[in-house]
């Protein structure tokens, strides 16, 4: 696959040196005649701190630029690097003579590439200076193996992930990258400039891919969509290694457009923020990590509209299209759903989290900037969303108590925190106790005096408050599956989750102490879970995708029994207080309602399409339902005169 984004040349040159390629453009037409000069550009970085162990090069987490390095062609000074380590030169060579390019700086070994001709015009060099000399030929036969890199190409076994790792829920810790010293103007590697195989921390790898493939000045939601695509694409090739080997050392990807452009010297605060904001999110199709391909555009135009070409280029994200979508107000989840049909997001409870109070006139969500936000009714009308305090972690839900005077979520440091109302105003968020693991749900009782979540060890735990303040967390019993939801009844004495064996489990209070037991039924991967106010109905999604219900009769759990409908793989679930109305997203993306009539469950859609990863919430009566639509807007369906109205937007855009 050729990925045409911010080209390799743009990535390594930077806008200050070669502004003509500082943004994704269609590939230039091939020249019909030989250039009369050699024009090259690149970056020079300090790699003296690299280590070679077990036959593999390990680079520092970050590489500093080498300023004022000399760039020579056949001994003639043609330029120096700037403060960011960047250079560019155009050396006259009408006769097409092969020349030697030399890079040198005080305290470093000399770097040389011999045999360079005008055919290499437009190539970009990524020069990593060490303490020893490095010399190679442009044609591909090493004149002298770089002494401090030789071990990197002699190992008979791989270090890192080369076919031995596979997971659809937990990203790899490292990815092995085949690095080249030069790339042509399309971003493809130049044979013979192989540097070696380098294990790179996986998050660091994505951080150094994104600014080379997306324009850092683009809208945050475009960058976040790009971060998810770059991460998922690389993860796929760790799970499904092609078996690339360089002199006995295997690698997952190389650093060129044959996979994705990776340059360890290129970073940007905006793209780093996009990677961090989405890191705890997993994107799958049909439960599996997939090859999340992307291209510069899908219609041969960088001015294409959001979604243009998506129907004919399945499973391919448009870089320019992602920016058009973001400019039109799409969230990053909605952008990805536009180009990758059927995609699901997990690792959160959920990304498009929504929560509604018992009366149905307050809705909490997390906006596109990560702010915990509230839509509310005043004088019979929904008001513009208002921040209530605090920033939520990228995978954090937010949950209201029954009166909407307490809102609980997970902050950026993993702390479970509380926003609360005092004297009619929201107070600053404060920690209540404990750290939540990645993707942990958060639930509260009606009074907002008990909060349950999953800690970093997978234990189901409980914070609680009394007149002296918040206490805990303390285990209430059991280990939750990595993708488990949580559901708590109004009194806070029945807590439901999915255990590590996939069983629907119930922690409950008896004689003042928490007990643990399984209820009945197996929940499919990613199943949400919900309960009613009394805690005697619990619903989940079974292994076949059917909505299932366990219920208490004569003091004993019955079921599970299918109650109607097939759920989309990422659906949330919302049950009203009496347990006779259940809301979910069906397999077609429609917001659907299972309800009891004449003692039997019925099924119907109520209006509106929910985006991938949308939360869903209802009030105590079950006659208001909120969700996130395909544009990321908060929507409300409601009952009037016995019929569903809407949906209509009520204000604000969810992340």
TrEMBL record:
Residues 1-22 form the signal peptide. InterPro entries: SpoIID/LytB_N. This is SpoIID/LytB domain protein. Keywords: Signal. SUPFAM superfamilies: Fucose-specific lectin (SSF89372). Pfam families: SpoIID. Residues 197-284 form the Sporulation stage II protein D amidase enhancer LytB N-terminal domain.
């Amino acid at each position: 696959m050729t990925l045409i984004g911010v080209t390799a040349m743009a990535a390594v040159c930077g806008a200050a040196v070669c502004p003509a390629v500082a943004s994704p453009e269609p590939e230039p037409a091939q020249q019909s005649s030989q250039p009369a000069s050699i024009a090259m550009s690149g970056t020079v970085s300090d790699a003296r701190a690299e280590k070679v162990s077990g036959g593999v090069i390990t680079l520092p987490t970050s590489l500093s630029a080498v300023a004022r390095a000399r760039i020579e062609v056949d001994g003639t000074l043609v330029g120096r690097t700037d403060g960011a380590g960047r250079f560019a030169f155009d050396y006259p060579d009408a006769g097409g003579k092969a020349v030697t390019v030399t890079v040198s700086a005080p305290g470093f070994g000399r770097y040389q590439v011999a045999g360079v001709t005008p055919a290499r015009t437009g190539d970009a060099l990524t020069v990593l200076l060490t303490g020893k000399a490095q010399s190679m030929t442009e044609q591909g036969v090493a004149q002298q193996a770089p002494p401090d890199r030789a071990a990197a190409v002699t190992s008979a076994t791989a270090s890192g992930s080369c076919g031995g790792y596979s997971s659809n829920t937990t990203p790899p810790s490292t990815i092995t990258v085949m690095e080249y010293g030069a790339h042509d103007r399309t971003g493809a590697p130049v044979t013979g400039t192989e540097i070696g195989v380098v294990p790179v921390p996986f998050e660091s790898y994505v951080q150094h891919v994104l600014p080379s493939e997306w324009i850092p000045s683009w809208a945050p939601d475009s960058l976040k969509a790009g971060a998810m695509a770059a991460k998922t694409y690389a993860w796929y090739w760790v799970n499904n290694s092609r078996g690339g080997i360089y002199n006995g050392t295997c690698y997952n990807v190389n650093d060129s457009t044959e996979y994705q452009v990776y340059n360890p010297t290129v970073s940007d605060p905006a793209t780093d923020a996009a990677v961090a904001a989405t890191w705890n999110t997993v994107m799958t199709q049909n439960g599996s990590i997939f090859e999340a391909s992307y291209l510069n555009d899908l219609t041969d135009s960088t001015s294409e509209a959001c979604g243009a070409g998506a129907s004919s280029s399945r499973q391919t994200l448009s870089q320019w299209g992602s920016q058009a979508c973001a400019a039109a107000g799409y969230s990053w989840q909605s952008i990805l759903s536009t180009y990758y049909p059927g995609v699901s997001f997990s690792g959160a409870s959920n990304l498009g989290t929504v929560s509604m109070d018992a009366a149905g006139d307050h809705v909490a969500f997390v906006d596109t900037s990560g702010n915990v936000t509230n839509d509310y009714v005043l004088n019979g009308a929904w008001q513009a969303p208002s921040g209530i305090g605090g920033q939520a972690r990228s995978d954090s839900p937010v949950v209201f108590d029954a009166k909407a005077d307490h809102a609980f979520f997970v902050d950026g440091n993993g702390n479970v925190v509380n926003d609360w109302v005092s004297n009619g105003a929201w107070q600053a968020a404060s920690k209540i106790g404990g750290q939540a693991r990645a993707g942990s749900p958060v639930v509260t009782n009606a009074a907002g005096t008990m909060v349950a979540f999953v800690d970093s060890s997978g234990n189901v735990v409980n914070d609680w408050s009394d007149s002296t303040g918040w206490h805990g967390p303390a285990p209430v019993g059991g280990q939750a599956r990595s993708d488990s939801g949580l559901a708590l009844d109004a009194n806070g004495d029945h807590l439901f989750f999915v255990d590590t064996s996939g069983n629907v489990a119930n922690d409950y209070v008896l004689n003042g102490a928490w007990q643990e037991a399984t209820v009945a039924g197996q929940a499919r991967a990613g199943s949400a879970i919900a309960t009613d106010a009394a805690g005697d109905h619990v619903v989940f999604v079974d292994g076949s995708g059917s909505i299932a219900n366990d219920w208490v009769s004569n003091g004993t759990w019955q079921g599970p029994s299918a109650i109607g409908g097939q759920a989309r793989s990422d659906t949330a679930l919302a049950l009203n207080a009496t347990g006779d109305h259940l809301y979910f997203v069906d397999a077609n993306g429609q917001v659907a309602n299972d309800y009891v009539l004449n003692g039997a469950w019925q099924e119907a859609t109520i209006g509106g399409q929910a985006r991938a990863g949308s939360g869903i919430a209802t009030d105590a009566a079950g006659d208001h339902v909120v969700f996130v639509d395909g544009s990321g807007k908060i929507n409300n369906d409601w009952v009037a005169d016995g019929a569903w109205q809407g949906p209509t937007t009520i204000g604000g855009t969810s992340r």
